[in-house]
Amino acid sequence: MCQLLGMNCNSPTDIVFSFEGFRRRAGITDHHSDGFGIAFFEGKGVRVFRDDKPCSSSPIADCVKQYHIKSLNVIAHIRKATQGVVNLENTHPFMREIWGENWVFAHNGNLKTMPDLSESRAQPIGSTDSEAAFCYMVEKLKVRYHKKPSDQEIFNAVYDIAAELGELGTFNFILSNGQIMLAHCSTHLHYVMRKAPFGKAFRIDDDGVIDFNDFAKPNDRVNIISTFPLTKNEAWVKMEHGGFVMFKDGEKIHEVVGEYKLMEDDGTQCTQSRVA
Amino acid sequence: MCQLLGMNCNSPTDIVFSFEGFRRRAGITDHHSDGFGIAFFEGKGVRVFRDDKPCSSSPIADCVKQYHIKSLNVIAHIRKATQGVVNLENTHPFMREIWGENWVFAHNGNLKTMPDLSESRAQPIGSTDSEAAFCYMVEKLKVRYHKKPSDQEIFNAVYDIAAELGELGTFNFILSNGQIMLAHCSTHLHYVMRKAPFGKAFRIDDDGVIDFNDFAKPNDRVNIISTFPLTKNEAWVKMEHGGFVMFKDGEKIHEVVGEYKLMEDDGTQCTQSRVA
């Protein structure tokens, strides 16, 4: 398995405090040492750093730390390989163009059956179940909507795909286009919202401490998503199996709390149960 | 305009000697200071570094220099913006998936008319003519061949697209999938092959000197492609208007010397002239 880290906020924010705890799980406090990747949105562009070396000791990760990039949306991933060898093309996050935007995807889990991509124009480059699942998603979204739809329609469309692929195995993922961030939970995913009044946070993976009052402005809102909580003293929300959320500008704007439910186009939930 | 740098070789090679001369043209020996990017293939994976700061002074470019990445195929670009503002999404090289491979593209020139992408599934993310041209190419290649064709068929297909887009303006470009490297010349593009017997090379943009005997093995073959020669004493080949070459394992395997000619599927040239 792997671990996921996401950040969505309303003001460009440096993720280094969270990333420094997270990267210790790649060889020091945990065993997710088969490469890492981190993608920073900058407008419609994306800066991606990847390495097939452990994130805790990678010189590329050191470069990320030193550069202190501020971004509204960041997705990071540390890998413990289940399917696909340890190399660069199998390193998350994966990126594809949809509707003239960069979409970035990282997965934690293991799909026992690969989705059918025989007719898909989007094809995986590496050999992971994760990239195959993302290509399936890209193809479905492009075929369903030729032009970019509303956030609500994107939420519903990705939810349908998540529910379908979630039946093939464990499918925790984070997905973003640089404006919205979507998170789906099969087994383990948590999030926390940081906003005023700000206080101190104490990292779990080492003795790192930060006082957000030293960095944040009064209206800042920062959502952090992580496989497991990164701090000891904050109100992390544990997502349920089948839980699905959309964040935008640091706020949760759409949510299905748990268990799979079909969605209508207006965002209401169908009463019928899902047909596989 | 911009400047291009490409490397194709038969043994993983460190591009830093060439890159260190090239990056000086981004603010020191020339004025291509509107961002840079460099893509290193590593198997089917790609490591991309980009910055909207001048390459000569970018900390990201310093990181590239320090890391000494060895690769079989590298494409780099320093930008002097003609179309599209200076930001990350307008920074070359651009990358898209075709036939389950990463394809990387960098352009020097200026298309006066944008190609028609109204029916294209591949859409540009930024606002440059360069990315629009690449999307046009991606779409044409995916529609013409659903599965990856032979190198000769790729050469012919890209040549046809280059000839078509070359009529819309200046269209010097380098393109690679990590195995082959294609280069098309409208106005300025040069290449040099480095192989045994190796000797010294003297950089044009500073007083850098290298003796390749200190680094190369007897069978190494390295092709460097650059908008203008990077060294004073090597046999750089100046490509002609309409010239098009394919390199593989450091060798030139297909070539059209200059002027546009239609290609048959077996690689022979048609006698008829091109119809726009």
Automatic annotation (TrEMBL), chains A, B:
- Keyword set, alphabetical order: Glutamine amidotransferase, Transferase
**Xref: CDD domains:** YafJ (cd01908)
Please name the SUPFAM superfamilies in this protein's record: N-terminal nucleophile aminohydrolases (Ntn hydrolases)
Superkingdom of origin organism? Bacteria
Query: Recorded GO terms, molecular function?
Result: transferase activity
Pfam families recorded: GATase_4
User: Which residue range or ranges hold the Glutamine amidotransferase type-2 domain?
Assistant: 2-276
Keyword Zinc-finger assigned to the entry: answer is: no
Q: What is this protein called?
A: Glutamine amidotransferase
Organism encoding this protein: Testudinibacter aquarius
Upper lineage is: Bacteria, Pseudomonadati, Pseudomonadota, Gammaproteobacteria, Pasteurellales
